[in-house]
Backbone:
């Protein structure tokens, strides 16, 4: 049976939840990138909707050829559209142009992945609690403010006092300076001190004894690995005739697993009832916030979608300007419309009429609506007649 000196300490407790623990599923860099993506996409949607001619429409569908067009994607509505998507609430705004629909679809894909990742990781953070560990190895213990000790005048104290390792020498000097406060008369006294001073006292003892007491006492655990390596043996008189017999039997028991079976019986099975009464907590230190390397591909898709939408916006803008050009050069028309769009204010603009084959604008294209005009004329005649009869 192999063993070594190890550290006995109280079991680490779960960290208390933070007030902003709902932000734990993502690393801070991811939250910053999400905020930048939200602001960027909202502003790009606003600009693209102003530039593309297919987002300018009449709010009155009964008028076939209106004199003014309106754009639903002002700056406030653009931000409202994107925030509604990421909060899974939607909005009453619906993109009409191909370019704005591409931006909307890309943003919806981005929010789908991010919200799904956030929800899955948040559930893990709420169920699994993170351990609050004081130290993980001998070096961290030596640099901490935790007291530590061992059995005085035993093999463990001899191990530290004769060690040439600087850390172990420092530990021994510290224990020797504190004296009876940390140097105990027995292992039981050291175990009781660990349990009486949770999180403030660690005790050096053999690993097999630590394992034995961990199965029978609650709230204690072994920290780190073994500080040395040795094994148990059976002492016999010098030149004993039973030496070969014991060696062969011990090797045979080790080969057929009998030693492991005996250890399992006397360490674990005998202490099973005591260990079952100890409170258990679902704890783990393996849950980590999603970093940019985990979700970076979604941001790449979002950037690519915005670039495609901008290219399509330029195409829509150019062909519509070319189709509706009335006077002046094409370059002047493009500059004029771009100046209006990039002013970023005002969501109303006058209608441009299409050119006919003769180069003039027809009556219908000027906004003539016969049915509406007949209705208005009849209404005016009715008002005049009622006014005359009243006089």
Residues:
């Amino acid at each position: 049976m192999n063993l070594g000196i190890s550290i006995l300490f109280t079991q680490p407790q779960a960290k208390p939840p933070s007030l902003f623990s709902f932000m734990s599923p993502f690393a801070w860099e991811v939250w910053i990138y999400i905020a930048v993506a939200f602001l960027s996409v909202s502003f790009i949607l606003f600009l693209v909707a102003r530039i593309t001619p297919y987002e300018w429409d009449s709010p009155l569908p009964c008028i076939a050829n209106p004199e003014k067009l309106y754009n639903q994607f002002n700056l406030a509505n653009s931000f409202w559209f994107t925030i509604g998507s990421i909060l899974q609430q939607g909005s009453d705004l619906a993109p009409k142009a191909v370019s704005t629909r591409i931006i909307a679809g890309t943003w919806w894909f981005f929010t789908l992945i991010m919200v799904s990742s956030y929800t899955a990781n948040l559930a893990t953070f709420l169920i699994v609690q993170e351990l609050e560990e004081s130290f993980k190895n001998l070096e961290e213990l030596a640099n901490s403010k935790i007291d530590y000790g061992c059995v005085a005048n035993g093999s463990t104290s001899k191990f530290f006092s004769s060690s040439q390792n600087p850390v172990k020498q420092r530990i021994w000097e510290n224990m020797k300076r504190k004296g009876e406060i940390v140097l105990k008369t027995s292992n039981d006294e050291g175990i009781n001190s660990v349990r009486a001073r949770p999180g403030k006292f660690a005790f050096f003892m053999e690993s097999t004894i630590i394992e034995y007491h961990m199965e029978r006492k609650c709230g204690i655990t072994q920290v780190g690995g073994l500080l040395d390596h040795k094994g148990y043996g059976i002492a016999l008189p010098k030149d004993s005739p039973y030496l070969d017999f014991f060696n062969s039997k011990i090797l045979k028991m080790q080969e057929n697993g009998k030693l492991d079976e005996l250890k399992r019986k006397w360490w674990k099975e005998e202490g099973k009832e005591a260990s079952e009464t100890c409170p258990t907590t679902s704890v783990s230190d393996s849950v980590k916030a999603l970093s940019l390397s985990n979700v970076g591909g979604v941001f790449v898709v979002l950037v690519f979608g915005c670039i495609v939408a901008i290219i399509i916006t330029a195409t829509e803008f150019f062909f519509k300007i070319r189709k509706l050009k009335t006077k002046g050069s094409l370059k002047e028309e493009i500059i004029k419309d771009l100046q209006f769009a990039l002013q970023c204010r005002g969501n109303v603009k006058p209608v441009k009429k299409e050119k006919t084959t003769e180069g003039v604008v027809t009556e219908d294209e000027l906004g003539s609506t016969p049915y509406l005009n007949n209705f208005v004329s009849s209404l005016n005649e009715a008002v005049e007649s009622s006014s005359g009869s009243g006089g």
